[in-house]
């Protein structure tokens, strides 16, 4: 017996197929990181682990704000696929690939001042700083591969080649684990070995990804598009879209960093409790983000082929799934706090009163899951300005005033209120702008990259805002 859906919901099997592979590729990453930590944690000196963790946080910040390369590529590619525009699909990947290559080389050239700036604001022991610099200086050489992999992943996601996304994730993370063992344990390169392993695994992933690209895209076809790749207007318009996403990412990262920093100022116990609560949030994000990737791909595809009648059903299904995930995680913490947090630590003093902050965690999980889905939805429509504006307002109106109050009164409850307001205001603002996207024609939100009019269409997309 086969299930049948109304025509507006006939995408549901496709949705769950994409969602499953996206979530699968997402959860492989923390497993690989866990193994790397285990290798470093078994070395004779703890400063190797601390140094890699420190440098890893700095690099994660850098690469998170540059993840607009993945987001922008997925949006433009999905819309081109919806229009059945093969040259537009290629241009989306090539233009963003060019930007990724330039940024990657810039990171290599600027790795010394970037490292000096990053480590100068952190007060750590000299041996920890030395280990951090060793990891940072070697891992930075992988920047071009990391950023080009962002583009490849976005390009494959936009074309619904999610099996390849999973394959690349498996290859990259398996290689990282094997190389970690070789360089850290066997060759005893410690922190530097972890950096070399990370960079090398990214280049291996890139080679595998390019192999699959070359299998289906003839070189002659790429050469024919060379002139359009270097079109200044097209590059400027793509940069505008990516720049809006960059600002949005920067605001989100700064909010999270501020939340963690202010929590640390309230004492070790409060900081540890917040860290455990945020671990639950982070675990839920791996699943919700996979749903967001799926939403982004389908929203872009529907927009590209003019199937705007399916946008509202897509938003409903995606938000519903995100709420389900958040309530499962939040409900488990609310009903079984000792069991859940007891798995993460055996320090009774940390989990003794952690239940008083669980209501805040549940509220944040719910609002953040919806934000993540709607972020993917608007990304699929290539409305980078929407993400930028929503996050800037949510930070300025919601998070910042409450954060100032949290510092003044030294209250962790008010700090969690600030984090909740950031997500709640973002959720409401995204929701308020949903109805206009369901209209059959929304000219000022269109993103079109037909082969002969790439620059004009891209320029129109962002400059009309």
UniProtKB/TrEMBL annotation:
GO terms for molecular function: antiporter activity; xenobiotic transmembrane transporter activity. The chain crosses the membrane at residues 20-40, 46-69, 89-114, 134-157, 164-186, 192-213, 234-257, 269-293, 314-337, 357-378, 390-407, 413-432. CDD domains: MATE_DinF_like (cd13136). The keyword Transmembrane applies. Keywords: Membrane, Transmembrane, Transmembrane helix, Transport. Signal peptide: none annotated. Multidrug efflux pump. This is Probable multidrug resistance protein NorM. It comes from Cylindrospermopsis raciborskii CS-505. The lineage of its organism: Bacteria, Bacillati, Cyanobacteriota, Cyanophyceae, Nostocales.
